Amino acid sequence: MAETFHQLFVNRRAYTLQSHKPHPDTERHYYYRPKAREGQPPPALSLDTLQRHLAGELTLGIYAINPCTQRSKWVAIDADYKNALEDLLKLQYELRQDGVEPALEKSNRGGHLWIFFEQPALARQCRIYIYHTALRLGLPIKGAGLPEGIEIFPRQDEISSHEFGNAIRGPLGVHRGARDSRGWRFWFYGADYTLEDQLAYLCRLRKVTEAELQNFIAGKSLSEEFVRRTRPEAPKRYFSSPTNEFRILEYVQVRRQSGRNWIAQCPSCAQANRDTSGDNLAISIEEPRKYICWAGCTREMIREAVGRPIPQKRYA
Ligand SMILES: [Zn+2]
Predict the structure, then answer these.
(1) pLDDT tens for residues 58-85?
(2) How many angstroms separate the alpha carbon of residue 268 from the centre of ligand 1?
(3) In this structure, what are the phi and psi dihedrals at residue 208, rounded to the nearest 5 degrees?
(4) DSSP letter for each residue of 36-67
(5) How many other C-beta atoms can be found within 10 angstroms of the C-beta atom of residue 77?
(6) Per-residue confidence at 184, pLDDT binned at 50, 70, 90?
(7) pTM for this prediction
(8) 3 state SS of 256
């Protein structure tokens, strides 16, 4: 079973472990990368360690990307918010229309949806495929200004040789922080709740071929397409705030993504017939309330230009 698990899930031999003791302040069981003993190479994931994971003696986190190839054997979509399971079921249904057989694994509040490849696939291409499928369904994707939404593992397009990217909880292990879940393990929905049946089920799933993946993502890219579809089609509630707080994204047309910012035409520059290339305004993706005009327009000028001037303080 450890060998089967290795074949299905292990992309590289670096790994993380979930702490046995909860953190005293948060009572959460965090994952950490095991340290090398002095003069020794860092611990590499062995069949013995995998056996102990399946036996529930320790709990592994596994990495998506092998830095030598920038590839992964799988994509996992993590959703952990209200209605997360509903979103994952929608995604599962949509992926099935492509002939993909995704496996749904339970987790605390939602689940992880796994897709396996016949041969390891480029992380970048896995991400393009899932991003586009999720956007088509209008599912929230965490990161693009949204505090909650699905997360796609691999979380990076590429990593360098000294990086690890993000690890995800290794399936079929005993989760230290979830005593109330059945048997302390999170199972896949598609098979009986024994390790043998679960692994056999995962092996039986049809694996996506490289040619299929190429076909799914033909003509698509990540950031540009993502931005283009996000702005006009994402439900407005993701950009507007319940308290009627000012959000610049409600007033500008995002043109593209640049690093950690959305790029748009500055409304104040536009009024003065400047910024014809439409890229003076940068809006933080992480914190969409933060924006700046590179030509030097002030916040007051920009608010004035979009018809939502900053209220003046009144003095008695
Ligand atoms: Zn400006």
Answers:
(1) 999 999 999 999 999 999 999 999 899 9
(2) 5
(3) -75, 135
(4) PPTTSPPP---HHHHHHHHHTSS-EEEES-BT
(5) 26
(6) confident
(7) 0.69
(8) strand
